[in-house]
Specification:
MFS_dom; 474 residues; transmembrane; single chain; MFS; mainly alpha; Tet-R_TetA/multi-R_MdtG-like; membrane; Growth Hormone, Chain: A
Length: 474
Amino acid sequence: MAAADTARRSGAYRTIASLTLASLAYAVMQMMVVPALPAIERDLGADSSSVAWLISAFLLSTAVSTPVLGRLGDMFGKERMLMIVLAVFAAGGVLGAFATSLEMLIAARVVQGLGGAIFPLAFGIARDALPADKLSMGIGLMSGSFGVGGGAGLVLSGLIVDHASWHGIFWVGIAIPLAAIVCVRAFVPASPARTRVQLDWLGAILLGGGLMPLLLAVSRGRAWGWGSPAVLGLLAGGAALLVLWTLWELRRREPLIDVRLLARRPVWTVNAAALFVGFGMYATSYLVPQLVQADPLHAGFGFDASTTAAGLFLLPAMLVGLVFGPVSGTLASRFGPKLPLVLGTATMAAGFALLAFAHDAPWHVYLGALLSYGLGLTLALTAMANLILVGVPRAQTGESTGMNTMVRTVGGSLGSQVVAALVLAGGAAGSVAASASGGGPTEHGFTVAFAVCAALLLVATALSAAVPSAPTRE
């Protein structure tokens, strides 16, 4: 009996380690390109507006594909779909590693964006395969890897770009998913598939067709002008298609996404909080490196940090996230996942508030990032995953966690663009002229951007408090 228990625990730990490695594959690459953008711009002779498509294309691909791939995992088996997604993700790395033009590089990022489905598929496998007493810890480690991987990506990217070539970051995007495929194949049990039904292709087209123009408008609004006909037309067209998608899904007996499920309070409150958590997460990854790389002799603020040193400002946050992933899972098991979500969003708000009022010494930035990107983000991500898992039927795990990932990605797209506009406009959020005038970032703009993030995370805290309490797993 003792031997059987030991074997069961060992198998669970191997499954958790394999799924965490798979999660890291996406988490590391989501941010690695950001510090390399100036080098890519120089090497390929592109302008900053064109190079920005490397971020926009990745987020667009992730947001559009994740709900669909999560649903396919529910239908055909999550473990099988996870290995397929990891293989596609590695193929994107190959394309990027050998890219000789910006167009090839953008295509590589589109392919890599499909890796956003790794997280919902891994969460679904964890729910199917792990014993109840290990589930929260496993979800905590996988969720913690999202913030940890993002921070690690920024640090590694700085080292690679400063000492080698930006092509090297894509070799990382090949090695990690290939290692994850081997581990998943060896240690992750097959996930049960649902009764196969016809995939709602029209629903998938309407959802993708609605999300793509909305995210395109958000990602390019600063460059094109928020009041331009192109941006307004994209927003209106995207919203209209999403309304049509909702009406279509409500009529389907086997919808792509169960809209009625999304409307339940345990689900919509978590997804609404995820929007603001995603906003804050991507805002931090933009604001902190930009702030610390500013030259105090010319800008009057910042620390004139190199690309590598800028990434190191997030290192303590990354290490805290690594430690607090399983701690957050333990909290969820003992007190229910609502408490870590409230604590996480409140801690993120506190970190942003600190950065808004104090960022003239390195320790201010270290502490603010630690609270917002390390401790707070890890608690929130773990809690959201656990709340979705306990709030939806097992057969709908993939589509529900996929939608949560998609909403967080939309929040991230909003966050990176809004704070960039605030920083460049010196705090005048609607001032397109100020952004286009050629003026650099201002300290007042950073203050306002951090303050806006703090306010939005307070809204997320209120939404977290409105989430119905879920039962503990003890």
